[in-house]
Amino acid sequence: MDIRDLRPPVEDGPWPPLTQLPPMTFEPLARATSWQQLIYAQGGGFRPLLMDVHVPATPRPAPVVLWVHGGGWGEGDRRLVPLQWGQQEFFQQFVDAGIAVATCDYRLIAEAPVEAMVQDIVAAIRYLRRYAGELALDADRVAVWGDSAGSHLSSLAALAGSAPDPDPAILGSQGVGEGRADVTGIVWCYGASDLTVLPELCEFLWATATPEERTTLAERYSPVTYLRADSPPLLIMHGDQDTMAPFDQAVRLHEAAVAVGAPSRLLVVPGAEHAFLGADIRAQWQTGLDFLAGLFAGGRAPAAARACSSLVKQNVLLTLARGGSLTIETMPDLLTTTQAAKLLGESRPTLIKRIESGELPSTMVGSHHRLRTNDVLALRRMRLEQRRAAALELLDLEDKLGL
User: Fold this and answer.
1) pLDDT of residue 17
2) Lowest CB count within 10 Å: 88, 203, 297, 340, which one?
């Protein structure tokens, strides 16, 4: 059978673990050069690690996104996306947008610890840069997109690798062994971001470690640990009905980014389960593609976009809202009550009272209220217009009275 015909055992609901797959053919993507089974790292007593790279037929070197599969750190295949999505169509979307897509295998939990998995992702990024000329890639425009466990690994590798002085112990020396590991952007989907609040996961990932060792490892291998003001822009997407990966992990990643001034957008997918099931999956693909295409078109997000992600500098935010040179898409969809109160010029307790009375609509994220950015900006604009109208009325009255 062709890989495009591969479907899950049942279309709706769980199924038993797949212990094998049927024989399948893998045709190259349309309108692309497909490099298959590239060995991006080998030696050291582990199996050769393979990568496929699909490069669009464009006259200039193409930007590239490294896709990192999920599978609970214990299974998965570089050639497969979640079975409910259908195969190859997701990768074809990149090519049709003029973006190359690379997909890599990495060592799994029965073969190697998490530390090695992260180093494998770093090795894949370095390989793409080392052979960018041969593969017709733009070495300065490299991004990552991870799925579930792949989001944890890819965001950790990308954030650690994008630091001004990366920790060589985190990056490792697999494959080409050295070179840049920074990225232009990160798409994170329903993964893990702060392992310090996931003790059961830590027991699974470091089964032989002591509790004290797990505490240290959890912090060291949490993506939130490596966030900085100059971190690459993040698009964080998570369904609010996910029963496999805690939605709180998306919130923690976004709020940690906002706290340090890193550019971040949190996209809550209403009603979506893990892997965006129950929602329009292709719409989520398009959101991620649009995000990356925007970064690739302009390089790293401009300083104004990075500033607005913290939503502290109101003048930048209002410029965006009034149709300035940036778009509102650079801002997160939801605001904390503190951020909303600053924009509206009122105290946080007053704002919370208005929310609890039903005057202002809000969304619950965990135990915290969040307000839609567009709602807050619309209310702010209305208040500014009311003040302007009142000021003009007063001036008119003063003019009539000869004051």
Assistant:
1) 81
2) 297
Whole-prediction pTM: 0.75
Domain ranges of the chain: 3-8+17-301, 333-388
CATH number, domain 333-388, options 1.10.1660, 2.10.70, 3.40.50, 3.10.450:
1.10.1660
**CB neighbours of 273 closer than 8 A, spacing ≥ 6?**
239, 241, 242, 243, 244
- Has domain 3-8+17-301 been given CATH number 3.40.50.1820? yes
Region of residue 37 (phi > 0: left; psi between -120 and 50: alpha; otherwise: beta): left
Residue 181's pLDDT is 97
Segment 369-393 mean pLDDT:
74
Residue with tokens 């509102």: 328
The pLDDT value given to residue 398: 64
d(CA 266, CA 365): 12
State the Rg of the chain over Cα: 23
CA distance 73 to 40: 20
The angle at the Cα of 294, spanning 293 to 299, to the nearest 5 degrees, equals 100
Q: Answer for the pair 223, 155: CB distance below 8 angstroms, yes or no.
A: yes
Nearest to 71 by CA among 112, 99, 105, 97: 105
CB distance 181 to 171 below 8 Å: yes
**pLDDT, tens digit, 9 for 90 and up, residues 245-298:** 999 999 999 999 999 999 999 999 999 999 999 999 999 999 999 999 999 997
Residue 399's pLDDT is 67
Residue appearing with tokens 């991006």: 40
Q: CA dist 244 to 83, 88, 387, Å?
A: 16, 24, 48
Residue 364 bridge partners (DSSP): 369
For residue 101, the surrounding DSSP H or E stretch is strand 100-104
